[in-house]
Write a structure and sequence with these properties.
about 350 residues; mainly alpha; 4 domains; two-stranded antiparallel sheet; about 50% helix; 16 helices; disordered C terminus; two-stranded antiparallel ribbon
Length: about 350
């Protein structure tokens, strides 16, 4: 590690310890101005053996435990690189003491995230939107006619809520809980995607590609000469990766994001993961939209662009109204139905039961 980078990290380690509690908020806001700090910390995390790794992990945990929002976001930007270092450790024969620092940091963040301020286990809730109601992503009239059935009417307006949790606290990583913890950590990372830097999004895309292709024939196509052993993944883990990749695709990381999405779909096909295939293929199809092709540049506002469909005030021809219901009832009984059309003229419709003449 260069002496300059080492000096930057050592200064960062020492200045936080001397801060009074009243100055933590202003210090958190000033971290973004330290342009050389983030690359130096990435360098520390990526090195196999570094005397600075343990104090860096300890300070990152202190940042997250402080509860200061900007300090927590500062830590989360390194999460993809930390995850890769953790997954890489067994295959690369890294020093157990070195990988233990990263394990302790990730477990600490996980155990803080699964509880609220009072120490009670969190239960996360997610509302599944109804396709019968318009949103920023769709108009019901553009997805075909919805069958008006008794069941559809009964469920109209109802929202389906999915719950996640409570999650168990973990003291160590095992083969059974590793991806459960990592998936939850990625969920926390994705919740703050709009605050992540370009280097963090690039790290996420690189993590996705490496995890999915290592040990498979595509590794030679990507010319990645890292580890050659296959890494076990789960469908839920890949879905969280795809969520972050989607944001990266829309915010200036088109090349890395496209490769990462293809690699995740490649692995999902090999593993037959339906959830990851569904989400990944949906995002890949959306790349054809004009809004996604003209995505924001790296210097622009970080948002996920969607194409807004203008709301039409015109009533559909197939709209069910009281008039059409009365007409249908009268047609069945062979009665005469009089109505006034748009031009104000009264028309008479004679209905003959059993005949095709009207």
């Amino acid at each position: 590690m260069l002496a300059m980078n080492q000096g930057v990290v050592e200064e960062w380690l020492s200045e936080f310890k001397t801060l009074p509690d009243s100055a933590v908020s202003s210090y958190a806001a000033s971290l973004k101005e330290k342009g050389s700090l983030v690359p130096a910390l990435y360098k520390v995390i990526r090195e196999n053996y570094s005397d600075l790794l343990e104090p860096v992990c300890h300070q990152l945990f202190e940042f997250y435990r402080s509860g200061e929002l900007w300090l927590q976001r500062f830590v989360l930007q390194f999460l993809p690189e930390l995850l890769w270092s953790l997954l890489l450790a067994p295959s690369a024969a890294r020093d157990p003491h070195t990988s233990g620092c990263i394990e302790a940091l990730l477990l600490g963040i996980y155990n803080l995230e699964i509880v609220d301020k009072d120490g009670q286990s969190k239960v996360l809730s997610f509302t599944v939107p109804s396709l019968s109601k318009p949103s920023v992503y769709h108009e019901p009239s553009h997805i075909g006619s919805l069958a008006l059935t008794e069941g559809a009417l009964a469920n109209h307006g109802l929202s389906r809520v999915v719950y996640s949790g409570p999650h168990l606290q973990r003291e160590t990583f095992t083969a059974q809980n590793r991806f459960e913890v990592l998936t939850f950590l990625l969920l926390s990372y994705n919740a703050s995607l709009s605050y992540m830097s370009s280097s963090s999004l690039q790290s996420l895309c690189q993590l996705s590609s490496r995890v999915c292709i290592c040990g498979f024939p595509r590794q030679h196509l990507r010319r990645y000469k890292g580890i050659s052993s296959r890494l076990t993944v789960t469908s839920e883990f890949l879905v969280q990766l795809v969520t972050g990749i989607h944001y990266a695709l829309c915010n200036g990381e088109m090349d890395l994001g496209s490769k990462a999405l293809d690699d995740v779909l490649y692995r999902a096909q090999l593993e037959l993961f339906p959830e990851a295939l569904l989400v990944g293929n949906a995002i890949k199809s959306s790349q054809q939209c004009a809004a996604l092709k003209s995505g924001a540049s790296k210097e622009g506002t970080r948002i996920i662009q969607v194409e807004m469909t203008p709301t039409s005030s015109r009533i559909s021809r197939n709209a069910v109204t009281s008039l059409s219901i009365r007409g249908h009832r009268w047609k069945r009984h062979g009665k005469t139905h009089r109505h006034t059309n748009r031009t104000g003229f009264r028309n008479t419709i004679l209905v003959s039961v059993g005949s095709t003449d009207y």
